[in-house]
């Protein structure tokens, strides 16, 4: 798993690629925490369009991140491919994780949420 961070004018983007299995889970959790630590931006995009596999440990971390973001009033969205979105939908996490299929759509969703 690799992680890159890219600050934009009104959001921070975390680009994650590779497999998120039990071995990568601690690094994944740290990456998500880094997206919200001490930043002045309250908008986050989690770009998982280059993730090949998400195991149950990764899904659990995403669920915890969603709850943490809600408590911190962070507006966020996750962009993912089928390997990411399908398990999120299958176990019912799509009710708490705002998902999109492209980063562009995630930016639009964050913007819409922020202005509602």
UniProtKB/TrEMBL annotation:
Residues 1-110 form the STAS domain. Pfam families: STAS. Transmembrane segments: none annotated. PROSITE patterns: STAS (PS50801). SUPFAM superfamilies: SpoIIaa-like (SSF52091). CDD domains: STAS_anti-anti-sigma_factors. InterPro entries: STAS_dom, STAS_dom_sf. It comes from the Bacteria. This is Possible anti-sigma factor antagonist. It comes from Rhodococcus wratislaviensis.
């Amino acid at each position: 798993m690799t992680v890159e961070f890219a600050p934009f004018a009104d959001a921070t983007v975390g680009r994650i690629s590779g497999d998120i299995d039990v071995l990568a889970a601690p690094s994944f959790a740290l990456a998500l925490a880094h997206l919200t630590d001490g930043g002045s931006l309250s908008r986050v995009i989690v770009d998982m369009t280059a993730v090949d596999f998400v195991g149950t440990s990764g899904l659990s971390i995403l669920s915890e991140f969603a709850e943490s973001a809600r408590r911190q009033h962070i507006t966020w969205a996750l962009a993912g491919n089928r390997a990411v979105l399908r398990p999120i939908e299958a176990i019912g996490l799509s009710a708490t994780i705002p998902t999109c299929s492209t980063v562009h759509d995630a930016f639009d969703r964050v913007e819409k949420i922020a202005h509602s």
